[in-house]
Design brief:
This protein is an all-alpha fold. It has one domain. The protein has 8 helices and no strands. It comes from Pseudonocardia humida.
């Protein structure tokens, strides 16, 4: 049973790493875009990446459970504990760094679903909110996603090492 939990936790860590790595890999290309191109490209992420993003919490829980099922004095426990910390950091980075930028990018955008508007807090920001410098938003969004990619790669690597 424990092996099953460890494998599922590792697979979920891999699923979380995929979109995080994709965001990191696109940064060099997106940095060449002007404001209108950048803002246009930003809108493509929300349907697909949001759907995968909901797996971050279950993945984190699975990795924490994987660590809890491992003997505390073992090297595997240290690896799984560190993977847990990395995924907790990944989720925290989303909510503290990336999410506020997503909310700003989506403010006053047509076509945001009711669920999306609630999730991103678009309705809460409302029209007439001050416009933030787009380059500051870009820097914060990209830096947050680069950090998340590093944390996701670390979590997956640690989980794989613990499986070996």
């Amino acid at each position: 049973m424990n092996t099953f939990v460890h494998v599922v936790a590792t697979l979920l860590a891999a699923v979380v790493m995929i979109p995080a790595a994709a965001h990191a890999l696109e940064v060099p290309g997106k940095r060449r875009l002007d404001e209108s191109g950048y803002r246009l490209v930003q809108t493509i992420y929300y349907p697909g990446f949001t759907a995968v993003g909901v797996l971050e919490v279950p993945a984190t829980v699975a990795v924490v459970v994987s660590a809890a099922l491992t003997y505390p004095g073992s090297g595997d426990f240290a690896m799984r504990l560190a993977a847990s910390v990395a995924l907790i950091g990944l989720v925290a980075t989303y909510w503290l760094v990336v999410h506020p930028v997503n909310r700003e990018w989506l403010r006053d955008k047509p076509g945001v679903s009711t669920w999306g508007a609630r999730f991103f807090g678009v309705a809460a920001s409302g029209a007439g909110a001050p416009v933030v410098d787009w380059t500051a938003l870009r820097r914060r969004w990209e830096t947050g996603h680069l950090a998340r990619a590093a944390l996701a790669v670390a979590a997956l690597t640690l989980q794989v090492i613990a499986l070996a």
